[in-house]
Amino acid sequence: MIDGMDASILRILQENARTSNAEIGRQVGLATSAVFERIRKLEEKGILRGYTAIVDPKPLDAGLLAFILARADERVGTHETAAALSKIPEVLEVHHIAGEDCAIVKVRVKDTDALARLLREDFGRVKTLKSTRTTIVLETIKESSRIAIEEGGEKEPEAARG
Fold this sequence. Notes:
- This protein has 162 residues and is an alpha+beta fold.
- It folds into two domains: 1-54, Winged helix-like DNA-binding domain superfamily/Winged helix DNA-binding domain (Arc Repressor Mutant, subunit A); 58-136, 2-Layer Sandwich (Alpha-Beta Plaits).
- The chain contains six helices and six strands.
- It has helices at 4-15, 21-28, 32-44, 80-86, 112-122, 158-161; strands at 64-72, 91-96, 103-109, 129-136, 150-151, 154-155.
- A four-stranded antiparallel sheet has the order 2-3-1-4.
- A hairpin with a 2-residue loop joins strand 5 and strand 6 (154-155).
- It starts with a helix and ends with a helix.
């Protein structure tokens, strides 16, 4: 789907999305215009979906991380509950999962009082939500959105991923 040059460009952008096309070109040995064109094509194909800033949640009073397993009372294959949960601002991720529960939800809030309020008020308003089980994260060892990018069937070396 992508060649080695695209893989290199994607790795650089995952490390720092603000890296200029000129700097990417210098690192991979391409002209700035060629880098621009490759990035445009990666965006068109939907491989490169956007650019984001990584924000430290603690100074913004969102230091408590929790994962909530949600069980819904809805037909299999529908996503009414997941869609409703996705609209809650403190919800960072919603994943449809296999097993007894139907979704796992990642949330960030200030503290346990805020978590209790979120569950009681916001989650409580979701009519199809049958039950929840919450796990509070005590310490995060690794958190990343970086994808290990393969080129020619080989993953990048572990040391290169950081």
